[in-house]
Amino acid sequence: MERLTLPAGGAAAVDEYLEYRRIVGEDDGGKLFTPEEYEEYKRKVLPLRLQNRLYVSWRSPTGMDCKLVGPETLCFCTHRYKQHKTDFEKIPQQRPISLPCRVPGCACQAYRYVPLNGTQPIRCRCKHFADQHSAAPASVCNACSKCSGFHSGFTCGCGQPAYAHDTVVETKQERLAQGKPVGQDVPYAAMGGLTGFSSLAEGYMRLDDSGVGAPSIEFLDSPATSTDHSFLKAFQASSSSQETQKAGTSNQVSSLRRPDEDDMAFFERRYQERIKMEKAAKQKGKAPLPSSMKPS
Questions:
Q1: What is the pLDDT of residues 248-276, one digit of tens each?
Q2: Residue 144 and residue 180: Cα distance in Å, rounded?
Q3: Are residues 251 and 290 in contact, defined by beta-carbon separation less than 8 angstroms?
Q4: How do residues 113-150 score in pLDDT, each as one tens digit?
Q5: Rounded-to-integer distance, Cα 291 and Cα 296, Å
């Protein structure tokens, strides 16, 4: 196994490069900016980026953001979100907002998310994969002549088909008006809809206002049923056994004579405890008293 070693100050240099790459993204054309160009770039771009950030999500008909798009998320054209136009000096007024691909020769006019089936692209109704279709707006198939445009019945984790979803591009104000999270303002390029680590999860697993949402208190407090996950039922059984164990421990402690008790006080206390337990058992219809509480 090879071991990577860095010279003195090497780790700091790596951190600086990663910071540079997060801020500049694809804007340097593959050639690093000089320190002067880098400072000029930040002075010009960062204020606009913080003010005019666009949030991109793949939204189901129910309004849930099933996928929050980030810098590395692929478009239908097979290029990543960070390779599309994401910075605007002034946010366009027309809706939907188009984010064209900046890769030379790509016909993609607007970023469009397409899900994966595991690690493979999904299929169209013409049986060909998504990446076998044209990136132009019509999305016709390049492998057959009978396909009039990409249309997939692939089912999302939310239960809705892929064709029922929309790629949504919206501003911070539009997102806040819907009660959806926007996170903190960051200077990094092409952040899209990412606002935290939870943004990486699918919508039906994300317990915030951009996903399925947090469950109600009534749901969290409800007892497990036969249809619940086996882990949940096992956890409830474990909790019940712990309560039973605590009750048994309490009975064992109660059966011990206290240092300041004489014989009559000890038997009287145990008698009164037995009477209380008998009353409680009659009221709740519980099993008979444990053997440790029965009179000898």
A1: 555 555 666 677 777 777 777 888 888 88
A2: 41
A3: yes
A4: 999 998 888 999 999 999 999 999 999 999 998 898 99
A5: 9
CB atoms within 10 A of CB 58: 24
Rounded distance, CA 183 to CA 198, Å? Answer: 11
Q: Is 189 helix (H, G, I), strand (E, B) or coil?
A: coil
Identify the H or E element spanning 251: helix 230-254
List, as one string, the DSSP characters of 76-113. Answer: TTSSBGGGB----SS--SSSSPP--B-STT----S--B
Give the CA distances from residue 259 to residues 54, 203, 262, 263, 295, in Å, rounded to whole numbers and listed in that order. 73, 61, 8, 11, 22
Closest CA to 113 of 36, 165, 153: 165
- In this predicted structure, the answer to whether residue 197 has a pLDDT above a threshold of 70 is yes
Q: What are φ and ψ of residue 15, in 5° steps?
A: -60, -40
Q: What is the mean pLDDT of the chain?
A: 87
**CA distance linking residue 199 with residue 65, whole number of Å:** 10
Per-residue pLDDT band at 240 (split at 50, 70, 90): low
Which residue is associated with the tokens 């680590």? 197
The HSE-up count of residue 268 (CA atoms within 13 Å, CB side) is 5
Rounded to 5 degrees, φ, ψ at 244 are -65, -40
Q: 66 — phi, psi (to 5°)? A: -70, -25
Looking up tokens 């700091």, which residue turns up? 12
**Which DSSP symbol is given to 285?**
T
